[in-house]
Amino acid sequence: MSSHLAHYSTFSKLLRSRQVVSGLLLMTAGIISLLWLRVDASVAVVCLVALMAWQSGRSSLLTKSGQLVLLWIAYPVAILWLLKMLNASGGGRTEQSVVIAYSVLGLAFLTTIILRRRNAVPRNRVAMQNGGSNVTPKFSDVGGLGETKAEIARLVESRLDVKRYRKYGVVQNGILLHGPRGSGKTFLAQSTAGQFGLHYECVSPTALKDMWVGATEGNIRRIFEEAAAKCPVLLFLDEIDGLGAARQAASSDPGGGRKASNDAVVQLMQCIDQYRTLPGFVLMAATNLLDSLDPALIREGRFDLRIRVDLPDEVARREILKALLSAKPSRVSDLDWLAARTPGFSAAKLRAVVDRAAVIAAETRRRIEDHDLKAALDAMGGKDRPLLEPVDWRDVVIDLVTEKEIRELIALLNDPNSAEQWKIHLPTGVLLVGPSGTGKSLLARLIATQSRRSFYPITASDLLGSQIGESVKKLTAVFERAKENRPSIIFFDEMDGLLPRRDGALLNQHDVQLVEQCLTEISHLSPQNQVFLIGTTNHLDRIDPRVLRGGRFSEKIQIGLPSSALRRRLFSKFLEGVSLSPESSLSWLAAQSESLSHADVQAVCEAAKRFGYSRVGTGQGAVLIQQDFKRALERVCVPDSSHLHESAARAGRE
Fold it and tell me: 305 near 152, Cβ under 8 Å?
């Protein structure tokens, strides 16, 4: 039925065309002028051919009646009148031949306009690049959304076949698409116009707003009038929340901004009420901020169909990928694996994967294959690394057992296919436990660097908000960002301060909400999300036990204080390029620094350098001696409480 309606609408559109009707009327006036002027037919033919050649490149002028008169009557008549005055040969041509020549050429010109208008894509219809040619998208190009497309088709057909529904008293119009960004709302509107052969008028609210009072309302009226003149038409208001936000009280509005915004919303509602019953007029809008719209604007009677276009599930992702690849030269055997590895991907992001694979295949002039899609998918993630300083294995000094465990973990993160073959399920998260200063945060950055993943560090100060619920929103935003830029790592530094336990402790409402939300977010993670969690703590007993259970931070890696051999390696690393006295050997330094952490060893080295500089100055051949290191050890090492009491008593006696 939709095809018959499309042909009928095309024919009626041509009959109502102001270009064709004006051309017929003005051609008749031109014939009368020629009969009155009685000029030579050859002169008329030459003038008409020149006029048609010039007019074919200026067809946009036909939309203005004054210029129509200039082109069809005033200009040729003025030329013919001038030629009559200058032409002495009246010729033997009859008036009948003049009329026939003018009529034949004029009708040929009008036929050309009709055929061109019938075969051409409407001026405002959106075309997409598909396989190197411009085509209008249709429902077949939209993967999935079968029920949604059926609902839209039912409403659009009711606006095109008005007689069928008029006797039932049914007038439905207004389709509001809402959902997350990139879910394909705009493309669905384009395919709706293409499916039913409608003119497609896409309007952005920012293009309607004006600085002058009342100009915005005038722009709204104008776009509705222009769209109604092109029926059948689909008027699409993209990001309607920019124009139809909820009205606010304008009692205290010295600048008049609120009143202007309210007036624009009222004008938009009035235009919808005025044109929604017009046959062939279909209204559609899209937003990803449904709650910000004025309730009166989106009520039934203005937007009768409200559809949520959500992120596609696995079945819908497979259909979207199939539709995208069908328009490109491809030889893909199976799409199930790609649909399974892209949970949370929007339609726009799936298109980006296919386009990247097409670029890879185009470099060698072949069809798109499975390995191109895999390479495109692997190349898209892991690029979002705010404030991450790259860490190499040379920057880390740990024992061999811990290093082996971390290397195995990084290998599995880098090669998930091998893990799947061995039926290895990666843990959701790993917790690095150990005293302060043992390099736990450095190891987390090492894993993020070596696994080429996006990295999102979280501390208590990052989530702290001044308003109720703000910390929960920030935490949710971090998880959403990590899923979007997969594969990724979320790093919880000092987790005992972020997720404290509740046993006998008085926690405020902020801490309770944060812990509960974190547990919810972690539980919703799946292996396909490719989000890995790393936490650090030096007080394991202070963390909520629910966080440490299986499926969350079930695995713990102990990071202890460095052994004597590791301390020698640390001193060698931090004193590289520094001259030491014979008695200040690395073995002696390792023996003197027992029970020091990695950070303490680095602090001792820096303090010894400073003391050596104070002792020698800027002279050449500076050498660090034992006394420099002893002073540094006294400065860095924290004495126990007994030493502190003895020092205080000694100071009191003096």
Answer: yes
Summarised one tens digit per residue, pLDDT across range 370-381 is: 999 988 987 877
**137 and 72 Cβ atoms separated by less than 8 Å:** no
User: Measured between alpha carbons, how far is 26 from 100 in angstroms, rounded to an integer?
Assistant: 16
Residue 105 scores a pLDDT above 60: no
Chain centroid, CA 339 distance in Å: 19
Reported as type and span, the H/E element at residue 169 is none
Alpha helices by DSSP H, listed for 63-214, are 65-69, 75-86, 95-119, 146-160, 162-166, 185-196, 205-208
Task: Give the orientation angle of helix 75-86 with respect to helix 41-56, to 10 degrees.
Answer: 150
Could you write out the three-class secondary structure of 530-567? Answer: CEEEEEEECCHHHECHHHHCCCCCCEEEECCCCCHHHH
Interior angle at CA 465, CA 464 and CA 467, nearest 5: 150
Distance CA 150, CA 160 (A): 15
Which residues have CB under 8 Å from 104's CB, separation 6+? none
Residue closest to 496 by CA, chosen among 548, 532, 450, 456? 548
The strand pairing partners of 238, in sequence order, are none
As beta bridge partners, residue 245 has 293
Q: How far apart are CA 583 and CA 580, in angstroms?
A: 8
Beta bridge partners of 178: 287, 308
CA torsion 485-486-492-493 (nearest 10°) is -70
Parallel, antiparallel, or unpaired: how do β-strands 199-203 and 488-492 relate?
Answer: unpaired
d(CA 234, CA 193): 6
Segment 620-640, tens digit of pLDDT? 667 899 999 999 999 988 665
Say if residues 475 and 533 touch (Cβ distance below 8 Å).
Answer: no
Contact 417, 377 (CB under 8 A): no
